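Progress narrative, Year 2. Work on IMS import disulfide relay-system CHCH-CHCH-like Cx9C domain-containing protein from Albugo candida advanced from sequence curation to structure prediction during this period.
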Amino acid sequence: MTKEPRRMSKLFADMLKNCSHDIQTYGSCVAQVDGLLNRNACQQEFAKVRLCFQKATKNVKAVSR
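Result:
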């Protein structure tokens, strides 16, 4: 059996731990859009979440090597 499931669990745990503020901010923005969500809505907030997720992914890959 591979270690992939454990690594993914670690990745998601790290994302929730390290990105919780950005996730909450993005979620609040989406909730305020009130049905008018489009591609550019909450773009800045999403960019922060995405950057945080990318950092978490790099950290897990570096640790697993």
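The mean pLDDT is 84. Residues 38-65 form one domain.
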